[in-house]
Amino acid sequence: MELSLATRTVGEHTVLEVGGEVDVYTAPRLRERLLELIDGGARHVVVDLGRVDFLDSTGLGVLVGALKRLRSTSGSFALVCDKEPLLKIFRITALDQVFPLHPTVDAAISADSAGAGA
Amino acid sequence: MATVKLSFSPAPVHVRTARLVGVAVARRAGVREELLDEVRLAIGEACTRAVALHRQYGLADPVLVEMSDGGSYAVRVVDRAPIEAGIGLTALPPDELANESLTDEALTTGVGFALLAGFVEDLQVRPVDEGIGTEVRMVWPVGR
User: Fold this and answer.
1) What is the CATH number of the domain that holds B107?
2) Could you give the ipTM of this predicted complex?
3) Domain count for chain B
């Protein structure tokens, strides 16, 4: 399945819903969209991987790039993922220790808002 | 022993084709259904790595993928890049993953290798027997 990208705003958070396959061919489009959002002023970004059915190292690299960029601007970055095959990828690469991972968009936003207010 | 060979020009768009073929042959060979996601990811990572090396060295040579099912399901992914580029892959520790100074390429390579090593129990990365290049060899059991 081709990559699909849809953006919505929830309060101060920008939610990017990603679907389909994120691989060496499609990851540049994800990178471009994340850069557009961040360069356009988004500071609190949640990427919802709920409809992703394939994610490889190139896609993970793009997500780490966005995390680093937002950190450098005092922003925040979180991922939404509740599929075991994808969660296993994060565990194996130890990226589960790098990204805030949440089962739902609501959980990601509340955790991020609580963190920002603390 | 049935063998399927696929060779493709080193472009990212063809990696998906290699994954699809690799999984189709795995299923036909009798690899258990619950392993197929791992087969798909591992073949994708090995091909992504080969494509990246060919592009880095400006090589137009095709990447070769060879799948065979003699008792187990074995996949070889062969690149034609200089050996020193292909050997010495290492997975990155967690504290380095988000390190600011780490380049995107180094990160992707490290993560790609972590995925290969994590998902493939029987994995070998070695120089090809003839000529220049590296072969990534992955083997999965078949459930028959």
Assistant:
1) 3.30.565.10
2) 0.90
3) 1
